[in-house]
Automatic annotation (TrEMBL):
Pfam families reported for this sequence: Hikeshi-like_C, Hikeshi-like_N
Gene giving rise to this polypeptide: Hikeshi
A single GO cellular-component term on record: nucleus
Domain Hikeshi-like C-terminal: 136-180
Organism: Casuarius casuarius (Southern cassowary)
Record's protein name: Protein Hikeshi
Amino acid sequence: MFGCLVAGRLVQAAPQQVAEDKFVFDLPDYENINHVVVFMLGTLPFPEGMGGSVYFCYPDQSGMAVWQLLGFVTNEKPSAIFKISGLKSGKGSQHPFGAMNLPQTPTVAQIGISVELLESLAQQTPVANAAVSSVDSFTEFTQKMLDNFYNFASSFAVSQAQMTPNPSEAFIPASVVLKW
């Protein structure tokens, strides 16, 4: 029903079923993973009104499992890309895998999928920074560059009372740069 893909690795298409409505994929050497793709194989859709919450689990320093909600997949949204590289230092959240005794080793993380009602999926809040930006890298670079330019230019701002006349220098109001 589900697949999991990490760049540079083989596709995992056979999750371990740990309960009737819960599945997990092992992610060995998770410290070197930046993004994970979770997708439906297309062989079996979710039952009507159901979808799957996607969780990331990694062992903390004491070896305890830390689960974080990444997002979801549904029949209408059968795949999703999640950024997990920045999540390894965050806090865990409530999850449906709590009562299960899933084995954890220090270098293996897990992706968990819990089949739930669509209404409950809509009420869940994924961990921040898990979703991959949909803006292309050039646009993102340009936005950051212009923000940086404005911050730099506005650091030299002075009021009209503080200005000393200098006929060889042109002054551009900050409002013009901001409007642009």
